[in-house]
């Protein structure tokens, strides 16, 4: 049985009166990609900070790559790569120099540094831009460099905090391919995101987070089947009509979600004959997200 790259039990992190992480259980089995999916403020970034020991948990058990945190966080950090949400590249240096700095930080022996840099440049498809100053790179290239930088020491585990936030769809696809490649090579990955599609495409297991807790955990298709069923029925109309549909659904015990200009009835396959007119479609992870977190998706 594979081991756990990450194992959290009852992790709690408080900031004064705010409990950012509130009794979180989280497992990342080795060689899998787990996606933390949650709305703003759900506690995703704080969870990432606990795992890198940038923040220290008030309660709970935390293990990363078999090391206990915070006691052995240095040893854990040596075998993990961290891709922060905010770009903190050194803009005065070139692509290659940024990577070189990290080969030193990770204490890669001198004779292996060149090869490590070449490999990281190759994975991130940045070989041709090695001499460019960071300032001269596009947003997508900068983000690929951030990922490359986290890979120079061949980490067993990579943490990606909102890897594609603010990027256009084409660049996002490129990064997805890169993350997928990492996973196919056996690297364990924990990724936070608030993009449903990103979680659906990349994660073997999705953990839906709300208010510092895991409110649902499972493979994306299993979560959809469990919480939203097979089909959704979208009903459009003016606000008064939508309120009527919601009220009616409530009396009949059907679960619904609001989508701006429509109401969606979930598990529509169980609503035969009596349902209102609308468009049927396959249920999806967004339905689960909205149902469990009460948040609309941008
Ligand atoms: P986002 O997607 O917006 O980054 P998130 O899911 O990553 O959201 P966190 O950044 O972990 O959420 O924040 C969880 C809660 O903890 C929020 O209410 C936030 O304001 C609070 N919080 C986070 N860091 C701190 C801090 N250093 N001091 C005080 N409060 C904090």
Please explain how this structure is put together.
The protein is α/β, with parallel strands linked by helices and 298 residues long. It has 2 domains: 4-217, Rossmann fold, CATH 3.40.50; 229-282. The protein has 10 helices and 14 strands. The chain has helices at residues 44-51, 73-78, 95-105, 110-123, 139-151, 169-184, 196-202, 220-227, 239-252, 285-293; strands at residues 4-15, 18-29, 33-37, 59-64, 67-69, 80-83, 157-161, 188-193, 205-210, 213-218, 231-236, 256-259, 262-265, 279-282. The strands form 3 sheets. It has a 6-stranded mixed sheet, sandwiched between helices. It is elongated and about 70 Å long. The two termini are 39 Å apart. It binds adenosine-5'-triphosphate. Adenosine-5'-triphosphate binds next to strand 2 and helix 1.
Key structural traits:
298 residues; alpha/beta; Rossmann fold; 2 domains; 6-stranded mixed beta sheet; 4-stranded antiparallel beta sheet; 10 helices; 36% helix; elongated; binds adenosine-5'-triphosphate
Give a summary of the structure in a few sentences:
The protein has 298 residues and is of the alpha/beta class. It has helices spanning 44-51, 73-78, 95-105, 110-123, 139-151, 169-184, 196-202, 220-227, 239-252, 285-293; strands spanning 4-15, 18-29, 33-37, 59-64, 67-69, 80-83, 157-161, 188-193, 205-210, 213-218, 231-236, 256-259, 262-265, 279-282. The chain folds into two domains: 4-217, 3-Layer(aba) Sandwich (Rossmann fold); 229-282.
């Amino acid at each position: 049985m594979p081991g756990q790259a990450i194992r959290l039990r009852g992790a709690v992190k408080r900031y004064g009166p705010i409990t950012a992480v509130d009794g979180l259980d989280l497992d990342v089995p080795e060689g899998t990609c787990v996606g933390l999916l949650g709305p703003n403020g759900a506690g995703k970034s704080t969870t990432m900070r606990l795992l890198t020991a940038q923040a220290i948990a008030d309660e709970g058990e935390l293990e990363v790559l078999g090391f206990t945190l915070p006691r052995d966080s240095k040893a854990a950090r040596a075998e993990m790569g961290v891709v922060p949400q905010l770009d903190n590249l050194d803009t005065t240096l070139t692509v290659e120099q940024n990577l070189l700095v990290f080969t030193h930080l990770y204490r890669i022996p001198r004779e292996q540094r060149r090869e490590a840099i070449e490999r990281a440049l190759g994975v991130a498809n940045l070989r041709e831009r090695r001499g460019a100053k960071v300032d001269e790179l596009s947003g997508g290239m900068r983000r690929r460099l951030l990922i490359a930088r986290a890979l120079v020491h061949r980490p067993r585990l990579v943490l990606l905090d909102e890897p594609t936030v603010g990027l256009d769809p084409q660049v996002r696809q490129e990064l997805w391919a890169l993350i997928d490649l990492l996973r196919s090579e056996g690297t364990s990955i924990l990724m936070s995101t608030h993009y449903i599609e990103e979680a659906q495409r990349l994660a073997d297991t999705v953990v839906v987070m709300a208010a510092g807790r895991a409110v649902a955990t499972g493979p994306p298709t299993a979560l959809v089947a469990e919480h939203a069923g097979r089909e959704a029925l979208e009903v459009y109309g003016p606000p008064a009509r939508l309120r009527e549909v919601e009220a009616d659904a409530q009396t009949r015990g059907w679960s619904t979600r609001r989508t701006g200009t429509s109401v969606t009835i979930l598990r529509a396959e169980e609503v035969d004959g009596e349902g209102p007119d609308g468009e049927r479609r396959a249920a999806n992870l967004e339905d689960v997200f909205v149902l469990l977190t009460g948040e609309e998706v941008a």
